[in-house]
Amino acid sequence: MKFCSDCGARVASAIPPGDHLPRYVCEACGTVHYENPKLIVGCVPEFDGRILLCRRAIEPRLGFWTVPAGFMENGETLQEAAARESREEALAEVEIGSLLTVVHVLHANQVHVFFRARLPTPSFGPAPESLEVELVPHAEIPWSELAFPSTEFTLRRYLEDLASGSQGHHFTEFDRRTAYGARS
Ligand SMILES: [Zn+2]
User: Fold this and answer.
1) Could you tell me which residues come within 8 angstroms of residue 104 by beta carbon, excluding any fewer than 6 positions away?
2) What is the CA(17)–ligand 1 centre distance, in A?
3) How far apart are the first and last CA of the chain?
4) Which of 14, 40, 55, 99 has its CA 20 to 30 A from that of 77?
């Protein structure tokens, strides 16, 4: 951030009184501009033993596969965000189920949240953000062509839970600020 979104003056990085982290502080009006992690929300839509995957038509990771997911909007719940992203990226109306994974992506200041989901009818298609959308059998998931580590973590936990007949909540973190990738 270079300029204040309130008054347009230049901002400087400084630790405000009583705070412990540097913030962008407006040199004219004094407004403190806090920056906090962003929420990415998605789901794993299943129909008849197959999972709905989208091949990305946009950067980052253009051409790689993912489940429907995207930035949460103001005024919606996590479940509503997950359902909306399925509609926007895959033209699919899904029924959101239980919480599946929470992935802290520390180097990107993001938290990714994924739910299980049901696709009641096999109706879907590529929206502008997707090159193609497919129902993929579990054994044919393109593991080497997945877009993000959170996608892989989520799909692996999903399949493990299916195999064991459970519906767990799984947490992990990725941190490329460290030398060896994931911190845990
Ligand atoms: Zn200002």
Assistant:
1) 111, 171, 172, 173, 174
2) 17
3) 31
4) 55
Please answer whether residues 1 and 31 qualify as being in contact, where contact means their C-beta atoms are separated by less than 8 angstroms: no
Distance 3 CA to ligand 1 centre (A): 8
Q: CB of 148 within 8 A of CB of 172?
A: no
Owner of token pair 């789901």: 43
Q: How far does the centroid of ligand 1 lie from the alpha carbon of residue 2, in Å?
A: 11
User: What is the number of other CB atoms lying within 10 angstroms of the CB of residue 182?
Assistant: 13
User: pTM (2 decimals)?
Assistant: 0.91
Ligand 1 center–CA 11 separation, angstroms: 7
Distance (Å) from CA 5 to ligand 1 centroid:
7
How far, CA to CA in Å, does 74 sit from each of 39, 62, 80, 94? 11, 26, 11, 21
Give the pLDDT band of residue 177 (cuts 50, 70, 90): confident
Report pLDDT for 180: 52
Tell me which H or E stretch contains 117: strand 110-118
How does the average pLDDT of the chain come out, rounded?
95
Lookup: tokens for 34: 């806090």
Those residues whose C-beta lies under 8 Å from the C-beta of residue 24, and which sit 6 or more positions away, are 1, 11, 12, 13, 32, 33, 35
